[in-house]
Specification:
23% strand, 40% helix, single chain, 4-stranded mixed beta sheet, Phosphoribosyl-aminoimidazole Synthetase, Chain A, domain 2, 60s Ribosomal Protein L30, Chain: A, 11 strands, 287 residues, 10 helices
Length: 287
Amino acid sequence: MQTVDFFTPIVDDPYTFGQIAAANALSDVYAMGGKPLTVLNIICFPVSCHPLEVMEEILRGGYDKVAEAEAVVVGGHSIEDPEPKYGLSVTGLVNIEDMITGSGARPGDHLVLTKPLGTGIIATAVKGEMITEKESAEAVSGMRALNAPASEAMLNVGVSACTDVTGFGFLGHLHELLVSSNVSAEIDYKKIDLYPSVREMIALGMIPAGAYRNLEYVRPHIKWAGSVEEKDDTLIILADPQTSGGLLVAVSPDKLELYLVALKERGVVGCSVGHITEGTTSRITIY
């Protein structure tokens, strides 16, 4: 399998940015139950106005995260660009019999999310200097974390379907999974974990433009059945574009506890946030 992803900095520290970008690019391989083997660096950098030591730190962050994934950096490509960008092209290996896709979800399956939501909102607040380093630390740590343990757990237990939650937000990636599986879903939004300060940052207007675009796309497929007072903020959170988000896993009822335990044993706090229902309209009911 092969995948590629890169983006502009979302944190100030170049080494941390390199780690986050690498973890994000590796995520697609983990979502399919694969193991990363080799990567190529992709970096755009303004060499005329920033010291090369900054680029070195970005690459070092990516290298260390790739090493943590037990993969190898085999090369890459760089160009001069006014705005820094970094990511990876990843080659991974998966046993075709064990490969997990987004098309196997079945009515009755539980939906498990393996990381909190809100990284797009937190990153916007960081750029706007509206949040302290201490307040954003948990979200930054979450973005740097590999999805390898969650992937290993689902391979050991056996699950129905999986997708990682990244740029299209929770709702966008869930909708993609539902369309692929020809089913619908019900979501209990109160069970979804959020990074600290997410709702406070929404109140301050720290909402990325991508959240509105994501919500506009999925809104025709949403049925809201929750609190009227919480509707607007909650939909923004569920549409928030995630960087290096968690896995969204569909798992059968008889394997739910096994998967949650397997996650916990690997240091991952997964939460059951809803379930798959019958219905070919790919409707997402939120209550």
